[in-house]
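Handout, section B. The chain below has 344 residues.
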Amino acid sequence: MRYFLSLFLAFSLILAFGCSSKEKEKGPKPLSTTCSPNGGDFVNGSSVNVTLTANKTGATIHYGIDDPNAGRSATDTVSFTIGPASDKTIKVYYWSEWTDPNTGNKELENGGVPKEATFVFKPDWLPPTVSITPSSGKYGERSQVNPIKISAQDQHSNVTLHYQTQSDGGGWSSEQTAGGSSKTAEAQVTWPDSAMVFEVKAWAQDALGNQSSIVTAKYEIDLTQMAKRVLDLINEKRAQQNPPLKALEWDNNLAAACQEHADQLAAAGGTKYSPADPGADNKKLQDRTSYKYAYGGKGPNTAEGIFNLWWGNAQIQGWMLATDVTKFGCGFETKYWIWIAAER
């Protein structure tokens, strides 16, 4: 027992000695003063709020503006303003001293040699900022995007916004401009129903000639989202019947067959567009899947547009309200629609 007790005491002494040694090695932190901001570039005509802070309580901060021997002082921290200034460089000099309240020993930061922070005031060099909202992406409906907002902002001078649009890669439109009489500029553009892909690019220039980088946004129709929107519209009509009809369910396999047939019809030249017409692979829709009702045709490339067109056809409307089907699929390729209703 005494043996283990001796080992424990010895181990404790080693730990205590080790900790004490580390503390001695680490020692007290040296006196230091920070300057915030620590200099930098600033636009002509502006002012800068400067704060000096010592890291030890009771320290005396000595500082000067453009003169290291100006003789200004404060305790612990001090804030002051430099400027407004133009086409000028201003230097702030600073250092601290501190007296240990326990020993009376005096500590001089950096041996009493002042540190310095340099503030340069010059003509506005900052470019405007440009944003386009909403962000790029795939969307089921253009209404999720429109109107597209383009904006530019400059901190110090009037700004002019420049922008262009492009539909389906057909070439950029002529350049349009907005603003020029204030520090902000805004414009709106609309993704047209005729375009499956719509792009916007914009940049801005302030009154001093500073230019922003070019900002772009690209919007694409998500075919699956758009096709599912057609189903939503059909089910809205089914729910309005008396009595209400059960909603049709989206079927991925039917949708894949529809999309494949629409793609193949387009690849075949686009002169035929019914389920019974063969695609470029010589397959008809019935070769791709089984179904109860099917219809295809040219039409608007919006879900609402094609639904309204089909709803206006008495035969197709009857299929949309049929009670002997439970599943639905739909596909689209550049104005060629194929849809299927089936019992699964």
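Note. The first strand starts at residue 33 and ends at 36. Compare this with the example in section A.
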